[in-house]
UniProtKB/TrEMBL annotation:
Localization, UniProt: Cytoplasm
Name this protein carries in UniProt: Nucleoside diphosphate kinase
GO MF term list: ATP binding; metal ion binding; nucleoside diphosphate kinase activity
GO cellular component: cytoplasm
Gene from which the chain derives: ndk
Length: 140
C-alpha cells in the first residue's frame, strides 16, 4: 500500500444538517488526513461539469440540482490506501445498503442525498482534486 490522495465532498444535505464536524471526525479516525478543505456553493454549471461522467444517467438533472442547492465542503484526503479507505468509510451509494457504522448508513437520507462523495480510482482522484484545488492550496 502507498500513501495516496483522494478527493472528498461533504454534500449539501450534510452541511445543512450541521454534520461537517462529525463526518470529518469519521475520516480522521480512519487515518485519513485533511490536507486541503474549503466550503463552496457550487453553481449548476460547476455541478454539471464535475459530474459530467454521469450526464447520460437518469439522475443527472436531479443530482446537479441538489449539488448546487447549498454549501458543500470540498476536501483532499491523504493516507495509506486513501481512495479505497475513504470509499469504505463512506459506505455504499444507497444508505439502505451501506454497512453499519459507515457515514452513509449513519447520516445519509436517500440514494441521491447521501452525505458524501469520494473518488473511485487514482485517475478520477487526480482529476477531481485538480477540478477544485490548485497545488498551493494542498498542504500535506
Ligand atoms: O457517489 P458514488 O460514487 O457512491 O455513486 P455514483 O454511482 O458515482 O453516483 C454519483 C452520485 O449520484 C451518488 O452519490 C448519488 O448522489 C447520485 N445517484 C443518484 O441520485 N441515484 C442513483 N441511482 C445513483 C447515484
Ligand atoms: Mg462515483
Amino acid at each position: 500500500m502507498a500513501i495516496e490522495r483522494t478527493f472528498s465532498m461533504i454534500k449539501p444535505d450534510a452541511t445543512k444538517r450541521n454534520l461537517t464536524g462529525k463526518i470529518v471526525d469519521r475520516l480522521e479516525s480512519a487515518g485519513l488526513r485533511v490536507v486541503a478543505s474549503k466550503r463552496v456553493y457550487m453553481s449548476k454549471a460547476q455541478a454539471e461539469a464535475f459530474y459530467a461522467v454521469h450526464r447520460e444517467r437518469p439522475f443527472y438533472g436531479e443530482l446537479t440540482a441538489f449539488m448546487s442547492s447549498g454549501p458543500t465542503v470540498v476536501q483532499v484526503l491523504e493516507g495509506e490506501d486513501a481512495i479505497a479507505k475513504n470509499r469504505e468509510v463512506m459506505g455504499a451509494t444507497n444508505p439502505a445498503e451501506a454497512a453499519p457504522g459507515t457515514i452513509r448508513a449513519d447520516f445519509a437520507q436517500s440514494i441521491g442525498e447521501n452525505a458524501v462523495h469520494g473518488s473511485d480510482a487514482p485517475e478520477t482522484a487526480k482529476e477531481e482534486i485538480a477540478f477544485w484545488f490548485s497545488g498551493v492550496e494542498i498542504v500535506g
